[in-house]
Each structure stands twice: as structure tokens, then as C-alpha cells.
């Protein structure tokens, strides 16, 4: 009988006691022991951070005898480590993963509750406390302490435990940045930073009672005074080699797991869906998805269907023009070059700082990095969507944006494709008036709507069209090119033009856009696919006002002399005579005649 899968399990001891399937990552303990005094490890959610912290708690905790748990694991072969460290250290273990609240007061109460539980668990230290220390200890247990006492609570507990056991303490803090992200999302970010910063600062900075500290989270946020003055901090992120194979599954570990459960899948299919991560140069698979694949025996999104996507969706929806353009490029399988700031500041997200946004996307597991280089004294990274599971999330996010804003791309373009240009103009103008505010939260950047529309096209029409935007075509760059996969359909070129006062009218701006399409020969790429029936549309905008012209408009692409010639044709003048009077070739005049 095969071992049960540890779905939903993050307690290491119960996993081993119940003989569940476990990919042996116990050598992380050796690497932790041999690394710095204060370690910060950041990885995406559900990549094994909590399970690893739990494993270390059971390994080091002096109050337990857990030799039997580790006997069959790789770490047990390290006899020197086993003798010196197995259940030989006082351990403070605290998790912040459940500290989630939409207001500051409740967050404060949740934090006080966690610290109260911690103190209750170690209340045996009351034996070595004086009366004043006991008073404060009792207040923390009773959730009646002052903020200053809460801020000093972990450091104080480490002192008391060192006094009790005569040994320095190991501090393990899981999901340390959860309250920071919650505070950012719900508007009390500045208020929480001081409290959390002081709590960690006092516990980690110059703490003579500290043997080692290990903190895990998704992001590194050291600029926010969280780790001010912690000079002995050593950081492991997805960008460096430290612990690079200890979180997530390597290719060999995935192959071993699938073989154990006798699952036969095309290797490429598993790679396409769940691989793609680059942790310090090591190829890593998403462990949560692999475990669920083995359980359900179906290739589909697993990780993306869990909670934790709200902030990423919000940043895509409210992102700048450049963010939306780059998301569209990522969905189309391209790489994007950007600056990644390891010491990310959540406050920078409020400023639409692109480097902060891309950093969050990368550290959260929504992107992978492929290469890096120094450019103007800045390290630039190339990033891309790691696999089909994450790509599906981006596509669904954009579709939801369109659905919420009542944008039906297919219906909008149907009139255009069928040649009903006036109906298309009317529908598009209504759309602009009704939905611009959805994409443009500031009211100062209407381009977000139009580029949001392009982003929508990239996912809403991909079954029928090859969508290209801002690509080199002809002699310039077209905003949107739709190349039909069915060559009997029409190709479409759309150019967006922002109105400038020197153009005098919005109509002139739209006409200039159509002129640009023709002069720059944007249609050349569509023609290369064997499609010659092409609709050209120029959309000029000034805030919420829109003017549209296209080659479907009557006479819109005729010169003044051609319009004169057309008038002569209507009066019944001879084609040869008209050619002599206007210097227009006879073939061109015949073409005008055909379109009367």
C-alpha cells in the first residue's frame, strides 16, 4: 500500500508519525547550522517554508526527544550534528501566517493573542523570574500588556529561557511578512511597521541570548526598519544560491515521486505546467501542484486556485500602461527586462513603482528570472511566466477584469469585422464612457484603459487571431495587429492616438493616426500571412472623448483631388477626360468608379 500524501499537512512530526510521503529535505538543518546567526529565507507560498520550520523546531527543541523522527532521514548520518544539536536547544517558535485582518485594532489583537500563546507555552520560566518580570509576563499571557512590552516580548522570552536552561535560544519565525502585506492591502501599513519592526529589531539585534534565528516569508522588506541594525542578517531569496534546492522539488525529486505512485505522464506536460522556477540557478517544480497532481491524477491548475492572489490581481488591474503592456507580452510568452529590488518596500507599490511590482511578482512565484546583467549601475533581470499553471492565472485575471468592466471584445469587434463602422464607433464610445474609470483609478492616465483593452484582446481573441501589439511592422510600430488564423477573415490594425492641441481637433488626430498606418505600411505583416483584406482603424482620445476613423469610412482615405474626380464621375464625365484634368491614373479613377 502506498504512503498517503501530506496534502494540507505542515506539522512535520505528525507527517512522520502517520508514515506519510515525505521528500527528504532534512539536510537543510545542516546548512542552517553552518550558515549565519540570523537567516531570512524568502520563497513563494506553499513551497514548504512552514513544514521546514516545523522540522527544525522538532529537531532542535530541548523539551522533546525526537530521535526516532530523524533516524531514517539524511541528516541522521551527520553524527556530529546529531550529537551536538538534536533536541539540545531551547526553541522559540512562532508563526504569523494567520495574522490577517482588514483593520489595525484586530491585527494588534491577533498579534497579542499569538504572543500570549507563546508565553503560555513557556510559562515554566516563571520559576526563574523576579516579581516585576512575573507581572509583565502575566500581562502578556492575559493580553493586557503595553505595546512596549509586546515589542520586547520575544527578546525577553529568549532571556528567560536562556536563564532557565543555561543555553542560548533558537528563534524560528514563520511567515513573518504576512501582517505587513495585510496592512498594505487594508490601509494601515505605516502604523504596523513600527510595532513589527520593534518586535523583530529587539529580538534579533545584539541579542546576547540568541544562538540562531530563522525567519521565513515571501518577500524581504529590510528597508522598512524591520531589520534595522541587524548587521548579522544573511538572506536567501530566489535570486541567490543559499538553500536553493531545499524549497520546492527538484526534477529528480519529481521523477522519484511520480515513479513511486506509478504515474506515467509525458515529461514535457509536467514540465510545461509545474516547472519553470529558478531558485539560485536550480530548476525547481511547484511542490503543492505536484502533490495534488499525484492525488487527483489530472493536469490542471492547483497552486493558482488557492488563496493569496488578490494583491497580484489588484496590481495588474491598477498598473501603469507599461505594466499592462508587459503583462500582455508575458502572456504571449516573451521575456521582460526589469529592475528587481531584493529589499522591496510595500510602500513603493502605492507609487506604482514598477521595480517593486516586478519584485513582488518574482518573489511570489508569478514570474521566474532567466538572466541578469549590470546596466547603468543597476542590476537588470529578464523575467517570464514560469509555466502553464501561472500563465492560466494571468489569462483568467485579465478575463475577469474584462468581465467586471462589462467589456465584450468579441461583440465590439463583430461590427467592425462585418463593416458596420458606425455601430462600432457608437459601441466603442459607450464603452469608453462606461468603463474608463475601472482601468484608470487615478483619473489621470486614460491610456490605461486603451492598453487594458489591448491586454484583453491578447487573451479574449487568441483562439481566432494572432495578436501583436507594439511590434515592428513595415516602417514603424502598430499599437495592435490582429492576424486571423482563418485566412478568409479580415485582418485588423488599430492605432491609438492621444490628442495634442496642435492638431486642433480630435478628428484631425484620428485622421493622422490613419495616415500613419498607411505611411508606415503597418499592413505588411498581415499581408505576409497571405491576407489582403485589412481593416484599418485609428482611435484618437482626449480623456473620455473618443474619435474614430477607418478605411471603412466613406472617402476617408481619398486625397482632395480624388474627391474632385469622384464628384466628376457622379456627374457622368468621361474617365479619360477626368484623368487629363486631375492627373490621376485611369486605373485609379476606375477604382473610384467601382466604389460609387
From TrEMBL:
Q: Per UniProt, what is one Pfam family of this protein?
A: PDDEXK_9
Q: InterPro entries from the xrefs?
A: AAA-ATPase-like_dom (IPR018631), P-loop_NTPase (IPR027417), PDDEXK_9 (IPR012547)
What residues does the AAA-ATPase-like domain cover? 6-227
The protein depicted here goes by the name AAA-ATPase-like domain-containing protein
UniProt organism field: Tepiditoga spiralis
What is the superkingdom listed in this entry's lineage?
A: Bacteria
Amino acid at each position: 500500500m502506498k504512503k498517503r500524501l501530506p496534502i494540507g499537512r505542515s506539522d512535520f512530526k505528525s507527517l512522520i508519525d502517520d508514515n506519510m510521503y515525505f521528500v527528504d529535505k532534512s539536510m537543510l538543518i545542516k546548512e542552517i547550522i553552518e550558515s549565519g546567526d540570523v537567516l531570512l529565507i524568502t520563497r513563494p507560498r506553499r513551497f514548504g517554508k512552514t513544514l521546514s520550520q516545523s522540522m527544525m523546531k522538532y529537531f532542535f527543541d530541548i523539551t522533546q526527544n525526537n530521535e526516532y523522527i530523524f533516524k531514517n532521514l539524511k541528516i541522521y548520518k551527520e553524527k556530529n550534528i546529531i550529537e551536538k544539536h538534536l533536541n539540545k536547544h531551547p526553541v522559540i517558535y512562532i508563526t504569523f501566517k494567520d495574522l490577517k485582518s482588514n483593520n489595525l485594532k484586530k491585527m494588534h489583537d491577533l498579534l497579542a493573542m499569538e504572543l500570549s500563546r507563546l508565553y503560555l507555552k513557556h510559562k515554566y520560566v516563571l520559576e526563574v523570574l523576579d516579581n516585576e518580570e512575573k507581572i509583565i509576563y502575566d500581562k502578556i499571557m492575559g493580553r493586557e500588556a503595553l505595546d512596549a512590552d509586546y515589542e520586547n516580548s520575544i527578546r525577553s522570552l529568549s532571556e528567560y529561557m536562556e536563564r532557565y536552561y543555561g543555553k542560548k535560544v533558537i528563534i524560528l519565525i514563520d511567515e513573518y511578512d504576512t501582517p505587513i502585506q495585510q496592512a498594505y492591502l487594508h490601509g494601515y501599513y505605516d502604523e504596523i511597521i513600527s510595532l513589527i519592526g520593534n518586535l523583530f529589531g529587539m529580538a534579533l539585534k545584539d541579542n546576547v541570548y540568541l544562538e540562531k534565528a530563522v525567519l521565513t516569508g515571501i518577500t524581504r522588506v529590510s528597508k522598512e526598519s524591520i531589520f534595522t541594525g541587524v548587521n548579522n542578517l544573511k538572506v536567501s531569496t530566489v535570486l541567490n544560491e543559499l538553500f536553493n534546492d531545499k524549497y520546492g522539488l527538484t526534477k529528480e525529486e519529481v521523477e522519484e515521486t511520480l515513479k513511486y505512485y506509478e504515474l506515467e505522464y509525458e515529461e514535457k506536460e509536467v514540465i510545461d505546467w509545474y516547472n519553470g522556477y529558478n531558485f539560485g540557478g536550480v530548476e525547481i517544480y511547484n511542490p503543492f501542484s505536484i502533490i495534488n497532481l499525484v492525488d487527483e491524477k489530472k493536469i490542471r491548475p492547483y497552486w493558482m486556485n488557492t488563496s493569496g492572489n488578490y494583491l497580484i490581481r489588484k496590481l495588474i488591474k491598477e498598473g501603469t500602461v507599461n505594466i499592462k503592456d508587459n503583462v500582455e507580452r508575458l502572456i504571449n510568452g516573451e521575456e521582460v527586462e526589469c529592475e528587481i529590488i531584493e529589499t522591496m518596500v510595500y510602500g513603493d507599490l502605492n507609487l506604482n513603482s514598477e521595480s517593486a511590482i516586478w519584485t513582488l511578482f518574482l518573489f511570489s512565484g508569478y514570474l521566474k528570472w532567466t538572466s541578469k546583467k549590470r546596466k547603468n549601475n543597476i542590476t537588470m533581470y529578464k523575467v517570464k511566466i514560469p509555466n502553464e499553471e501561472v500563465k492560466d492565472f494571468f489569462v483568467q485575471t485579465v478575463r475577469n477584469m474584462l468581465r467586471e468592466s462589462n467589456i465584450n471584445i468579441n461583440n465590439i469587434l463583430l461590427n467592425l469585422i462585418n463593416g458596420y463602422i458606425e455601430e462600432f464607433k457608437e459601441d466603442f464610445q459607450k464603452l469608453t464612457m462606461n468603463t474608463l474609470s475601472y482601468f484608470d483609478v487615478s483619473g489621470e492616465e486614460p491610456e490605461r484603459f486603451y492598453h487594458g483593452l489591448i491586454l484583453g484582446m491578447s487573451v479574449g481573441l487568441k483562439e481566432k487571431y494572432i495578436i501583436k501589439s507594439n511590434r515592428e511592422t513595415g516602417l514603424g510600430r502598430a499599437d495592435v495587429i490582429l492576424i486571423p488564423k482563418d485566412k478568409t477573415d479580415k485582418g485588423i490594425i488599430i492605432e491609438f492616438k492621444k490628442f495634442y492641441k496642435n492638431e486642433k481637433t480630435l478628428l484631425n488626430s484620428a485622421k493622422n493616426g490613419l495616415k500613419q498606418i498607411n505611411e508606415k505600411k503597418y499592413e505588411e505583416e498581415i499581408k505576409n500571412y497571405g491576407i489582403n483584406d485589412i481593416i484599418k482603424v485609428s482611435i484618437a482620445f482626449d480623456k473620455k472623448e473618443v474619435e474614430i476613423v477607418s478605411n471603412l469610412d466613406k472617402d476617408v482615405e481619398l486625397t482632395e483631388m480624388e474627391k474632385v474626380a469622384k464628384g466628376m464621375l457622379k456627374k457622368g464625365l468621361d474617365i479619360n477626360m477626368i484623368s487629363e484634368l486631375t492627373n490621376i491614373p485611369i486605373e485609379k479613377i476606375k477604382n473610384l468608379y467601382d466604389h460609387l
